[in-house]
Amino acid sequence: MGFFVSRKLPAKVISVGNITSGGTGKTPAVIYLAKTLLSQGHRVAILSRGYGRKTAGTQLVTDGASSVTDWRNFGDEPTLMANKLSGVPIVVDGNRHRGGMVLVDRFNPDIIIMDDAFQHRAIERDVDIVLINSQDNRATHKLLPYGMLREPWISLKRADVIVFTKSNMKKPAPFLRSLARKTNRPRVRSRYTVGKPKNIFNGDPLLNLGLTAIAVAGIGDPDSFIRTLEQVDVIIADKLFFMDHYDYTQDDVDQIRTQMKKANTDTVITTEKDAVKLRNLETTGINIYSVGIEFALSPKAEKRLLNIIQK
């Protein structure tokens, strides 16, 4: 209606977002997209607001070469992206136009990926990629606070492409497929590939598969995490779940120790996003492993997505 002004950045802008509150797998999708575009010779940068960080203003997470140790300066997801990507500068800023101009001035990218920006209208985008969790059910697809929807389904008509995530864990329900078809937007399905559990401090792989562990996570879709663990031959004796982007404290570590004692295990399995935060706490005597998740597309789906991005 013209109430809000959208400004253009001097680079192609790709938004990766969703219409639900968390759990769609945006971070793995952004990492995949950055790696794929880098492999094609593009100069790629990432712009995020840095949800949950303790700092304000514009913060350079990485110049594409440096790693990050304290997630509190930038948020858990930008920190994870910085440590998994090489050659991709990342900036966090609540004022995304300002943050985008910092990336342009310092690194001259030809593509900027905006993380979690479907509802952000201050910057014009060339491509809107919207993710939908294939695990979603009707109960969650009501508007907040009654469900998980940030905005109505009709908003998907703004999208350039809809991506169903985690479809290898569970096919999208008929009601999801039907609603997506009604938007008349291109649709593709993605899957998750699961890596071997690795020690969060030294990176050593978990060799003793079949052992008993406690599952600990503060993410938007813990059910998918449990399905993931079923693929790595770990017996889950107990679960300890927190809200998405949870900021762990030493008291939480004590609670984990109590749960471990009851389950007669010294091992914890968590996500890479949670590992970013647990590394900063005192966890002596606890073997903590994280499971790496990667977003993946079939060759046909990847070609279709890239054609949409590059047209």
Structural class label = alpha/beta
pLDDT < 50 runs, ≥5 residues: none
Q: What is the number of beta strands?
A: 15
Strand content: 15-25%
Shape: globular
The helix/strand series, from N terminus to C terminus, equals EHEEHEHEEEHEEEEHEHEHEEH
CATH architecture tag of the largest domain: 3-Layer(aba) Sandwich
How many distinct helices? 8
Distance between the termini: 28 Å
Describe the structure.
α1 runs parallel beside α2. Helix content is 27%, strand content 23%. The protein folds into two domains: 12-191 and 295-310, P-loop containing nucleotide triphosphate hydrolases (Rossmann fold, 3-Layer(aba) Sandwich); 196-291, Rossmann fold (3-Layer(aba) Sandwich). The protein has helices at residues 26-39, 76-84, 96-107, 174-182, 222-229, 250-263, 272-278, 299-310; strands at 12-18, 44-48, 59-62, 90-92, 111-115, 127-133, 161-165, 187-189, 191-194, 198-199, 212-217, 235-241, 267-271, 287-291, 293-296. The chain has an eight-stranded mixed β-sheet with strand order 3-4-2-5-1-6-7-8, sandwiched between helices. β7, α4 (174-182) and β8 (187-189) form a beta-alpha-beta unit. It is built from eight helices and 15 strands. By secondary structure, the protein is an alpha/beta fold.
